[in-house]
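User: My notes are a mess, but here's the protein and pyridoxal-5'-phosphate's SMILES. Can you give me a structure?
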Amino acid sequence: MESNRRSWLKQLGLGIAGIGLTQLESVAAPFEKHRILDDSLLNFPVRLNANENPFGPGPKAREALIKNAVVSNRYNLPQAKTLVEKIAEAQSVAAENVLLGAGSTEILDVTGRYAALSKGSLVLGDPTFGFWTETAERLGLKRIKVPLTADKKLDLPAMLKAMTPDTKLVYLCNPNNPTGTLNTRADLEAFITEASKTAMVLIDEAYIEFTNEKSFVGWINSNKNIIVAKTFSKVYGMAGARLGYAIAHKDTIKALSGVQSWPNGNNSIATVAAGLAALTDPTFVKDYVALNEKARTFTYNSLTAIGLKVIPSYTNFLYFSLEGYKKDYYKVLEQNKIMGREIFEQNGKWTRISIGTMAEMEYYVKALG
Ligand SMILES: Cc1ncc(COP(=O)(O)O)c(C=O)c1O
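Assistant: No problem, the inputs look usable. Here's the predicted complex:
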């Protein structure tokens, strides 16, 4: 999936390398406007391809990043230790239950590497956020991909059936990327209880703050086979700062740390400071989630109005079918300097669009029209 993403960026000619520094600086709402979540600005290219928060980082995190850039001559100790403690406090677990990563991708990666130590297989949905599993496969975990249900949810009974005696890891992305769908709590509980009897279950909660769902963090102390991955990239708007973490039983954290060369060491001091600041800024998260919901509803209704099939989403992106779309979608994106995504499923021509500011979504809808 990542290689798809790269070639897709290249294809559009709008990859990161092609964006000048000045443009990158203007990608977030300007600092002087940080007290208001400005949603009227349009920056080009309009980046609707990576489920980024168009407003973030929040004001407090932003200030911490800028202030702490000057102490980048230092390693992140002891600030990383403090961040681990603060995350633990926020998640009602102990510090020994937390492991930091450079984004939650590193947590997924470390989990894959740990599982691959004993070879065997890895079960995941298809499509899902699975690009990190390519590495796990190279290291010895055979991937078993299980197609989603017709309504684009993880097919939990089929995933359970797909498990074999040598399955070491099961990946549950809930809500699922790229589809934005949720499985019910009851179904997830039954699945996790069963699957974790024989394999590790990695629950990716990157988008859980957009929903009213309860985290599975509360399950980790009684079950060593459960790992919850979380990120500062989405609701906290810190994707480029790279901060994520795992929550798991202390023995599991110890085991995962064994395949991370410098446990908790991969985040810059500015990023750690920003993470600490972000945790004290729930207003930013609340405001963003509300603005996202408004822009998502607008986009959902607009795509539906032009006759496209759209999957109801619990996230900051929408999954929809290009079947029946009269124009050349990718030409429209290119001509209007909009970054979107490739087709994830040929059958039905399903693609994904991230939710930006309302102004960006109005621009996108107008371009499609
Ligand atoms: C489901 C899911 N998990 C994890 C990530 C990784 O995010 P990061 O490495 O920025 O924390 C993403 C990013 O889009 C995602 O969609």
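The first strand starts at residue 46 and ends at 47.
User: Great, I'll file this with my notes.
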